[in-house]
């Protein structure tokens, strides 16, 4: 396997994609949707600031967080379309065998196709950067925070592209692999939350409440509560949980109630998701920011699992591209 071989396959994939004019229209539509969302979000936050007196310095927090969550959601819809037919589509058109009989190895073909789809996804992400910079200029978002969030989104796009390509190598028909790719995205996002909620009743345990001293009562009582620390790992692979938990802490400001410098999390959706994920690992659960922030992180497990899953999908792609082929699926042709 050589880098030049990977570049040859990636360049060929790019040429095939550029021959079709639909990519230009898709890029235009992407920018239009992101621009419309950013404008409406900024307008809505401006109205909220006028009515509630939100500090201008913190207006960038909800704008940047909302924008990046929206971008991640769109990317999860676009990424499967970039790679879900990269292998079986060429096989259906009879062009894959032409590449396989060249000196290119199976790994060069697999990584070249993956590089092309991931780079295309990064182009979509790059078109979002001006709007992300707009949110940063609104204040409240540090440069490090913005870079980390964009890097995590880029990595998640690569994972989805790798998984979609693996399904493209596994299934003979492009429509099947595309459908399975979107089902996989659904399972990673909505499905993980559904499974987490359904698993909570299985973790119910009896707790005893003792009132603190000076509360005016000494009565204790027992109740049943779910033990989320037993099933928190079900949420770990969720891309939105990974993004929210991996985001660095926002800037601090003086809390008039406690008299301490505390991070601004009330209007930051990324911090809210991250603290919600970490609260699932705390027993008993607490609403204190310092305790939740000190809880073990969730994103290393989720991101590591997703990266390993993507690497396994690339390995599957390379295995399915090896020649000579001793067994083909029914109805699949060589050339």
UniProtKB/TrEMBL annotation:
Record key words, sorted: Membrane, Transmembrane, Transmembrane helix
Gene Ontology cellular component annotations, sorted alphabetically: plasma membrane
Molecular function (Gene Ontology), one example: ABC-type transporter activity
Listed name of the protein: ABC transporter permease subunit
Pfam families membership: ABC2_membrane_2
Transmembrane segments annotated in the record for this chain: 25-43, 63-83, 114-137, 143-167, 179-202, 298-318
Keyword Membrane tagged: yes
């Amino acid at each position: 396997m050589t880098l030049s071989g990977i570049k040859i396959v990636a360049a060929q994939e790019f040429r095939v994609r550029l021959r079709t004019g639909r990519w230009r229209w898709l890029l235009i539509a992407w920018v239009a949707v992101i621009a419309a969302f950013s404008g409406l979000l900024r307008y809505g936050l401006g109205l909220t600031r006028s009515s509630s007196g939100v500090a201008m310095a913190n207006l960038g927090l909800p704008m940047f967080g909302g924008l990046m969550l929206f971008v991640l959601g769109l990317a999860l819809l676009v990424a499967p379309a970039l790679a879900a037919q990269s292998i079986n589509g060429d096989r259906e058109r009879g062009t894959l065998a032409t590449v396989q009989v060249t000196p290119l190895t199976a790994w060069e073909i697999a990584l070249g196709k993956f590089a092309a789809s991931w780079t295309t996804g990064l182009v979509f992400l790059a078109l979002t950067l001006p709007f992300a910079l707009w949110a940063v200029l609104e204040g409240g978002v540090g440069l490090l925070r913005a870079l980390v969030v964009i890097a995590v989104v880029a990595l998640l796009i690569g994972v989805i592209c790798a998984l979609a390509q693996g399904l493209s190598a596994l299934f003979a028909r492009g429509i099947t692999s595309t459908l399975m790719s979107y089902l996989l995205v659904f399972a990673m996002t909505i499905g993980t939350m559904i499974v987490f909620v359904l698993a909570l009743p299985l973790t119910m345990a009896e707790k005893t409440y003792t009132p603190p001293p000076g509360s005016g009562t000494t009565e204790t009582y027992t109740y049943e509560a779910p033990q989320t620390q037993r099933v928190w790992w079900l949420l770990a692979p969720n891309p939105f949980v990974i993004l929210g938990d991996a985001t660095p802490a926002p800037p601090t400001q003086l809390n008039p109630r406690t008299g301490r410098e505390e991070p601004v999390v009330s209007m930051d959706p990324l911090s809210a998701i991250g603290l919600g994920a970490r609260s699932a690992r705390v027993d008993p659960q607490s609403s204190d920011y310092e305790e939740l922030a000190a809880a073990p992180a969730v994103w290393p497990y989720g991101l590591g699992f997703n990266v390993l899953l993507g690497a396994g999908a690339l390995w599957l792609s390379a295995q399915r591209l090896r020649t000579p082929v001793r067994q083909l699926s029914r109805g699949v042709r060589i050339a």
